[in-house]
Amino acid sequence: MEKLVSLCKRRGFIFPGSEIYGGLANSWDYGPLGVQMKINIKNDWWKKVVEERDDMVGLDGAILMNPKVWEASGHVETFNDPLVEDKKTHKRYRADHLIQDITGMDVDGKSLDELAAIIKEKDIKSPDGNELTSPRQFSGMFETTAGAAGEGKQVIYLRPETAQAMFVNFKNVLDTSRKRIPFGIAQIGKAFRNEITPGNFIFRTLEFEQMEIEFFIEESDWEKQFELWNKWRLNWAKSIGINEKLLSFEEHAPEKLSHYSKKTTDVMFKFPFGVQELWGLAYRTDYDLSQHEKFSGQNLTYTDPNDNSRKFIPHVIEPTFGVDRTLLAILVSAYDEEEVNGETRVVMRFKNNIAPYQIAILPLSKKEQLSTLGKEVFNNLNKDYRCEYDETQSIGKRYRRQDEIGTPFCITVDFESLEDGMVTVRDRDSMEQTRIAIDKLNSFIQDKIQ
Ligand code: GAP
Q1: What own/partner pairs with CB < 8 Å and gap ≥ 24 does 117-124 have?
Q2: Angle at which helices 2-11 and 395-404 pack, to 10 degrees?
Q3: Whose CA is nearest to atom 15 of ligand 1?
């Protein structure tokens, strides 16, 4: 993990947030390569989830919503974690995680009183060896206020999930898109959670991005649709370069289920710090639409187009994906070290669709003629591929850099190129070098990048 964090900083994937001011705990800024990878992940997901399907549409809901949304969704009442505080250092911990780490006991779903009793009985102390306060509920939702101070000031929340905008807009989408169930709404956007114990780089942060789907179905169809999305996400994981061998599935025990879910199966990933949740898949029943119908007083029923007298509240399957965790799983999967001529070569084996750059154009020297030809090659390729042009440092150092940022192809332009109109294409993984005519480059690369 340390190697990965340091590579991400050194090469421009991910920087500590607000670094010149000493940082802000657990906040991260995505650098030139990190933001490109996040865009590639989101574009790939959006294309496959929305653009390539006729039973899906997109939405971009507001981050700030009417606070009643979060009352209806159950978040105001239940989106809490049990918090304990070290009486001396005032460091805060999730009581359930602390007990689990120290005793190995599974305490999911235990009440505050039960947790307090376990802490007392097992004499559980903080990691610094100090007494702990009694557990209390701590809201995971960030609060802020809208409107000028005084009259009209209203407490509102930063959304802890993107999901609710899709439920709240169910009727709008249904009435305007002409979709009939089964159909889904997809959304990508930021979510915010006041996590008690964030950490492990970008794995758990206070601010993160989600890609979520609410798939509206008939109740009788839920098991079939659940399984279809389960398969879909496994295939997608492979297609973006997540190592299948590091994946597993974990079904939530009944006492661990979220308040809205009848069945949840997480995709787990073996991160360097342990096997942890990567993505979720939940059968949310008709909970959300029913709640919104109740709280808003609006009719959110669906009319069967084949039988107008049949009206019902659709059920929902929700596949949910964290963008940041997806990126972390890709980084972990791609990281590789190998011995080449007695030296260690670090190489990020990204898939072509996700790599920040697909091609690097590297003139062998800064001489004007080579720069001109190099720029010509760059300008010919950068309409179709993500390209970088680099003429600084020795070619060895430039190859090393491109390996570390996972560029699948490097094209070197040399003095012979000026004579014979050919360049050398180096394959990142095999390090094989192929001499190819400049006017054949596009089709050569196209075949490889498909
Ligand atoms: N709408 C359902 C929902 O939000 P979740 O399991 O709480 O379900 C979905 O979150 C996904 O969002 C997770 O599987 C994970 O990928 C990501 N995620 C959740 N909390 C996160 C955090 N604090 N930091 C980064 N990613 C997080």
Answers
A1: 119/84, 119/95, 124/98, 124/99
A2: 120
A3: 322
Q: Where are the beta strands (DSSP E) in 88-130?
A: 92-94
- Report the C-alpha gap between 167 and 73 in whole angstroms: 10
Of 277, 283, 328, 330, the one to substitute when testing ligand 1's pocket (max ligand atoms within 8 A of C-beta) is: 277
Sorted by where each starts, the structural domains of the chain and their CATH numbers stand as: 2-63+155-333 (3.30.930.10), 80-139 (3.30.40.230), 357-449 (3.40.50.800)
Angle, vertex CA 335, rays to CA 332 and CA 340, nearest 5? 165
CB atoms within 10 A of CB 445: 21
75 within ligand 1 shell (Cβ under 6 A): no
State the DSSP code for 50: I
Q: Decide whether any atom of ligand 1 lies within 6 Å of the 277 Cβ.
A: yes
How many angstroms is it from 117 CA to the middle of ligand 1?
A: 30
Q: How far, in Å, CA of 320 to CA of 302, rounded?
A: 24
85 within ligand 1 shell (Cβ under 6 A): no
| Between 393 and 248, the higher pLDDT residue | 248
Determine the distance separating the centroid of ligand 1 and the alpha carbon of 327, expressed in angstroms: 13
Closest CA to 98 of 72, 79, 78, 116: 116
- Whether ligand 1 lies within 6 angstroms of the CB of 44 is answered as no
Residue 279, ligand 1, Cβ within 6 A: yes
Quick one: average pLDDT of 370-376? 95
Residue whose CA is at the smallest distance from ligand 1 atom 22: 204
Name the CA radius of gyration of the chain, rounded.
Answer: 26
φ, ψ for residue 219 (rounded to 5)?
-55, -40
Q: In this predicted model, what pLDDT tens digit does every residue of 39-73 receive, in sequence order? A: 999 999 999 999 999 999 999 999 999 999 999 99
Which of ligand 1's atoms lies nearest the C-alpha of 326? 16
Of 161, 206, 233, 284, the residue with max ligand 1 atoms within 8 A of its CB, to mutate for a pocket test, comes to: 161
Tokens at residue 415, please? 């003095």
pLDDT at 199: 81
Q: Is 208 in the pocket of ligand 1 (CB under 6 A)?
A: yes
